[in-house]
Amino acid sequence: MKISRILHAGYVFESGGTQIVFDPVFENPFSRNCHAYPDVRFDLAQVRALRPDAVFISHFHDDHCSLESLDLLDRATPVYLYCLFDELFAMIRELGFVDVRPLALDLPVLVGAFEVIPRRALEADVDSMFQIRAEGLNVLNVVDSWMDPETLEQLKPYAPWDMVLWPFQTMREVDVIAPSRAERGPVELPEEWPEQLQALAPRYVVPSSCQFRQEPWSWYNHAMFPITYRQFAQAVGEWLPAAQVVRLNPSVAVELTADALTPAAPLPWVLPVGEQDVDYEYDPDTVPPPTADIARHFTALTFEQTAQVQAFCNSGLLERYEEMELPEDSYFATPCVWRLSVYDHEGSAQHYRYRIHGDSIALAVDEEVPTWHTEIPIAKLYAGLALGESLTSMYMRINGAPADADIVDDPLIRTLFDNAFAAYQAAQLRRIKAA
């Protein structure tokens, strides 16, 4: 079995003349501002010439399911997708793919030499993981999900596994959105991991499903990615003395047999750029720069784009907020004043004040001190509205939220992302069709 890394959670598996692709991303940056780490570029002409026997997509997140990457593939390629919502299947079909099939948990899919079995992840309404079998070998691709305890019991009888692709990076999204809540000091690996990996008893462990960082200037690079390759390899070595940790950088391929793991010819269409054995540099004492400074990194919006953001802040946000149902235990169930500060490319802010009580919201005209303050660059707010950009790359910052309040109750987060399934892919489809 030949296993090759594309990028992030993307892999090519080959056996017996069959080639299947998992979570393909042929873009850098991808998901708007996830920059490949280590750096790569793609020979897109060679990508277009690929004829895989099938594509498997583990879930709908835009760093795993990108229509602009799928757009490079032959439309006769069967696409298997784990997703509970019909809209995404319709989008892929609208892109021109004629064979798009839903994946069902524990129901094997046979493609040539391979048997692929989707397995339940902890968040089964979002994620899945893959058991991949061929040539008498068993590989578990955990993608970037958390292991469900029942699934672990289901997978134990297959031990020892030949290889496990393990999501080694535990991103600290809340810490960068609400820096006042960030934990200080060194970061320990999740306490569940030793027991889970020991139960699987793999021969080889690949640190997987995080091969990106944010823009080179971003403070997120020292605050959101706490686990290093070095730390992961050392920990796994202690938990599994008989196992070997194998780092697969983009394009790197290996040949897995029952007896050994050997280097194989790299993917010719994934082209490494610069140093490849880079590692993350987490600094728990990183001081976040002001949002005004962050906003200066982005280009100015057009007049029309600016007007769209202003219309949202003055009316669209209020309409969306009142259409939603606020959780009873929300901080905003009690009357309060919320301030939204939107920073332009010169670092100047326009402030909007809202009086909120439960499901009601109105622009506030008085100068009452806000108890919840949200900041965002205008370029990122526009990207969230028009381009489906994800929360963790928007440089949104929440200040002053009480320690017991739920960050995702933030009114901007809710109005942008509640009921916004596949917004990124929908924006991609619009661009592809327009082109």
Q: Report the CATH topology name of the largest domain.
A: Metallo-beta-lactamase, Chain A
> How confident overall, as mean pLDDT?
95
Poorly predicted ranges? none
DSSP helical segment count: 12
Kindly, what is the distance between the CA atoms of the first and last residues, rounded to a whole number of angstroms? 39 Å
> How many structural domains can be distinguished in the coordinates?
2
For this structure, what is the CATH homologous superfamily of the largest domain? Ribonuclease Z/Hydroxyacylglutathione hydrolase-like
Short recap of the structure:
With 435 residues, the protein is of the alpha/beta class. Helix content is 24%, strand content 24%.
Please describe what this structure looks like.
This is MBL fold metallo-hydrolase. With about 425 residues, this protein is of the alpha/beta class. The protein folds into two domains: about 270 residues, Metallo-beta-lactamase, Chain A (4-Layer Sandwich); about 140 residues, Nonspecific Lipid-transfer Protein, Chain A (2-Layer Sandwich). Helices cover about 25% and strands about 25% of the residues. The strands form five sheets. The chain has an eight-stranded mixed sheet, with helices on one face. A seven-stranded mixed sheet has the order 9-10-11-12-13-14-16. Strands 22-21-20-23-24 form a five-stranded mixed sheet. A hairpin with a 4-residue loop joins strand 17 and strand 18. Helix 9 packs across helix 10. The relative contact order is 0.13.
Provide the fold topology.
Blueprint: E1 2-5, E2 11-15, E3 18-22, E4 35-36, E5 40-42, H1 44-48, E6 54-57, H2 67-70, E7 79-81, H3 86-94, E8 100-102, E9 109-111, E10 114-120, E11 128-134, E12 137-141, H4 149-155, E13 163-167, H5 173-177, H6 193-200, E14 204-208, E15 212-213, H7 229-239, E16 244-245, E17 253-256, E18 261-264, E19 270-272, H8 291-295, H9 303-323, E20 336-343, E21 349-357, E22 360-363, E23 372-377, H10 378-386, E24 397-399, H11 411-417, H12 423-434
Parallel strand pairs: 3-6, 6-7, 7-8, 12-13, 13-14, 14-16, 20-23
Antiparallel strand pairs: 1-2, 1-17, 2-3, 4-15, 5-19, 9-10, 10-11, 11-12, 17-18, 20-21, 21-22, 23-24
Helix pairs in contact: 9-10
